[in-house]
């Protein structure tokens, strides 16, 4: 399994964790019965922390529409180099930082984390398009 695929799995695991937290917040705000039912009595746009978490998850899902195909292309085309690995790693770290910054409402830092994630996507795409070998230092 390539490093890029491992980073994709890590992002998906992070999405799962955020979704589980969202369910817990919804259960706390609206009760177990409402949260586990069809949620007809729960507003689509929840206020406060639940709403921000919903938007952070939606933002992460939108980013996955770009990240996932790029990572899958690295596997399909057999391209894995320093750019693709570093891009995937940067994307993962940026998305992990983005969520709590979104939840806390820190707009400037949240935007910076998002921009760093975009940089990771650009590096990943560059590594795919260039096919150049870029060696990362290996730590023993």
Short description:
This protein is an all-alpha fold and 140 residues long. 79% of the residues lie in helices and 0% in strands. Helix 3 (48-77) runs antiparallel to helix 4.
Verbal overview:
- The protein has 140 residues and is an all-alpha fold.
- It is built from 5 helices and no strands.
- It is elongated, with a radius of gyration of 17 Å.
- The mean pLDDT is 87.
How would you characterize the largest beta sheet? Answer: none
Distance between the termini: 20 Å
Secondary structural class? mainly alpha
CATH superfamily: Membrane associated eicosanoid/glutathione metabolism-like domain
Number of strands: 0
Whole-number average pLDDT? 87
Question: Based on CA inertia axes, which overall geometry fits?
Answer: elongated
CATH class: Mainly Alpha
List keywords for this structure.
Four Helix Bundle (Hemerythrin (Met), subunit A), 140 residues, 79% helix, single chain, mainly alpha
SSE inventory with pairings:
Blueprint: H1 3-30, H2 32-36, H3 48-77, H4 82-104, H5 107-130
Helix pairs in contact: 1-3, 1-4, 3-4, 3-5, 4-5
